[in-house]
Every structure is written in structure tokens, then in C-alpha cells.
Amino acid sequence: MTARTINTTLVHLNAAQASAADDLLAPLIHAPPGRPYVIAQLGQSLDGRIATPTGASRWINSAAALDHLHRLRSHVDAVVVGIGTVVADDPLLTVRRVAGRHPARVVIDPNGRLISSARMLADDGVRRVIICGADRAVPAVAESIVVGRAIDGQFDPNDIVAALYTAGFKKILIEGGASTVSSFIDANAVDRLHVLVAPIILGSGMMGLSLKAITRLEEAHRPATSVHVLDDGDVLFDCNLRSRI
């Protein structure tokens, strides 16, 4: 049997160095303005889990991984999450751990589940956007972007990206949850994927990426990837989904 060589680059850097590296953030920072640029991120354990069976997910990843996530936020125009993430975690979606501006906050909410007290709706000067259908009312503090009818409870990720780009959001971060990130990858709507793997084994609980089933290994994603070891143990996989090996 012949071993296959994978074109993967390994780089040992601390969090600040990794985030500043040309091969890591430069594609995002210097993305051409003539089309949307979409980056997604996912934090998980060694065994590919994002939460325990009870839903506990805080502190799976390290401080350096959180710093990196906030740097990503500081370089995009909008950060996007699904309504499940807002209901479960009530995230702020701001830039707090690094210097930089807050991005617009976007939630995908096909069924009108967002409540007006959600922290992502805080009035701090940035746009707050709800992706919804034409028949849904939204809180007065937010603006709506209508993308048509949801199919099986989901909007087409490419329709979402196109609508956000039309609304002025050229660089877009798909932050979570895992089902949202997975749906955007399945729709070929993601340019770059950052997977942050923590040296922890949960053994049970919620899995991370869950994509459409394949029958042959030849159908698997094999993106060109660089690997960055952060200074407190997490490993960052930077996957260029537009370049396969």
C-alpha cells in the first residue's frame, strides 16, 4: 500500500503570531471587494465534539482560541449565527479580547424565535440584522433581510450570502452553531474554514461538522490546509475550501 502525502503546513506560533501570519488572516483582510468572502470557524474537542450531552460548551477551547475568534470578528463586516446558538448561549458577538471594531450581528431566524432581550440586539452602534421570511416581524431595534421561504426550516446559505453582500456586508464570518456552519459548507458557500481543536476528549456529546453523506472517499473534502499550534495547546486548522489537494 502506498502512503499518500498530504500537503499540510505545520507552524508553531503563539495566538497573536498565528492571527497575524500572512497565510492565515491575509486572505480575509485582502479579499477582493467584487464578491462576498465567507470564512467559517468551529471550535471542538479532539474527538470532534462541540458540547457535552447536557449542552455545556464553554471552555472547551483555550484563551488563545478565543483571542483568535475575536480577531476574526474584528476583520469582518458581519458575524452570522443561527437562532439555536442565540437561544442556547445568548452570545454578545462583539470584539472584546482584542483591539478592533465590532462587526454587524446577524441571526438566521426562519421561525421568529428571537426575543427582544437577546444580548446580540444590544444598542452599541452596530447594525443588528435578522434573516427571516417575509411574514415574520422582527424586534424594532433590528433590521430584517428577507431571503424567501425556508425549506425544511432552513434558508439557502447562498441566498443569505448574496443578500448580506447586497446589504453592504462583504466579509462574512459564519460563527455557529455547528449545524449552521455545516449547512454553509454543504452549500459551497464558504471560502475558508478555521477549525480550532482543543486537547480534550469528551467521549460523548454533540458532534461538530455534519455534512451530506458520501459514498466514496474521492468525494471527501481535501482542502489545502495549514496547521498552527497555539501557545496554550489548541491547534488551528486553516482550510482553504477553494483549493483542494
CATH names the topology as Dihydrofolate Reductase, subunit A
CATH superfamily: Dihydrofolate Reductase, subunit A
What are the segments in which pLDDT stays under 50 over at least 5 consecutive residues?
A: 1-7
What top-tier CATH class fits best? Alpha Beta
Overall mean confidence score, pLDDT = 89
Q: Biggest sheet: strands side by side, in what order?
A: 1-11-12-9-2-8-4-5-6-7
Count of discrete domains: 1
Distance between the termini: 20 Å
Helices, by number, come to: 6
The largest β sheet comes out as: 10 strands, mixed
- Helical amount among residues, as a percent range? 10-25%
Radius of gyration over all CA atoms, rounded: 18 Å
Can you write the helix and strand succession as a string?
EHHEEHEHEEEHEHEEEE
Can you put this structure into words, describing what you see?
The protein has a single domain (8-211, 230-244), classed as Dihydrofolate Reductase, subunit A. With 245 residues, it is an alpha/beta fold. The protein is 21% helix and 27% strand. The model is unreliable at 1-7 (pLDDT under 50). Strand 4, helix 4 and strand 5 (104-108) form a beta-alpha-beta unit. It has helices at 15-20, 22-29, 63-74, 83-89, 157-166, 178-186; strands at residues 8-12, 37-44, 49-51, 78-82, 104-108, 128-132, 143-146, 171-176, 192-197, 206-207, 223-229, 235-244.
